[in-house]
Amino acid sequence: MTVINLLKTGRTRSSLFVACRSPRQAQNNFIRNLLKITANLGVVLSRLSQGMMKDMVRSKLADYIDLANELSAAELDDFIKLMELAVQKHDPVTADHQKRVTEICGFVADNIDLPVNRSALIRAARLHDLGKIGWPPGLREIRVSKKGGLREIIKTHLFLSLYFIEAVDQLVAEADIVRFNHIFDGYPADLEVSEMPLEAHILSAADYIDALISPRTYRRDRTLAVDYAIRLLNQRDYPREVKSLVRMKIENN
Ligand SMILES: [Fe+2]
Ligand SMILES: [Fe+2]
């Protein structure tokens, strides 16, 4: 992995880099250190105002930002793989969800009769839930108040995913896709559906259907029948072509 060489050679002064002999060791150290700095960050962020959230994340992720700033175009894909491994290590259920969502997005992009930025869509799908590494492990187990404490923690993942993605200059289009991902769930509140790019509609629709029919980290036992999930998908304001291709992909699985 070229990005591991970046970590190994110490081209970055980031504390995410730890001197080590093998690329595998460098990779494992990186992931361990990244998960250490994001551990329970979601819980902390859920109690802060938007401005305070930014300050907290900026100070926690300073080393990550340094690394992201040094990435060359050739290192981008390896970097995304590294981030996928971090999600896999922290939360395999979410890693599997990201893979299925990426597959649905690929199918829609390949079959839709509209211009679509396929590579940005795929990268966005692969990274869209990266911020869940800030969730406590076994999130569904934690005690939360009935006033929506769990929901507030869940919402922090979008903020954190975006922070990770926006730090990489080469991922501007991907950030513009991910930022709309939960617009129909009501957050963030300052976005308009009319400004949503087609790729964001595809990702959001793929994400929504997979969330309904597959096990999730925080509600592992509550999945819906495919027919009912498709009915819910159809109630959302995605383009008709997107909904029918997502439906086709799900029904053929
Ligand atoms: Fe999400
Ligand atoms: Fe997701």
What share of the residues lie within helices?
Answer: 55-70%
Based on the coordinates given, report the CATH architecture.
Orthogonal Bundle
Small molecules in complex: fe (ii) ion
How many separate structural domains?
1
**What is the CATH class?**
Mainly Alpha
Number of strands: 0
Tally of helical runs: 13
| Rounded average pLDDT | 87
Annotated CATH homologous superfamily = Hypothetical protein af1432
Order of helical and strand elements: HHHHHHHHHHHHH
Determine the CATH topology: Hypothetical protein af1432
The major β-sheet equals: none
Which regions contain 5 or more consecutive residues with pLDDT less than 50? 141-147
Overall geometric form: globular
Structural class: mainly alpha
What portion of residues belong to β-strands? Answer: under 5%
> Distance between termini?
33 Å
Tell me the radius of gyration: 18 Å
Description:
Helix content is 62%, strand content 0%. The chain has 253 residues and is mainly alpha-helical. The chain has a single domain (2-252), classed as Hypothetical protein af1432 (Orthogonal Bundle). The chain binds fe (ii) ion (FE2) (2 copies).
Would you kindly provide a brief summary of this structure?
It contains 13 helices and no strands. The protein has 253 residues and is mainly α.
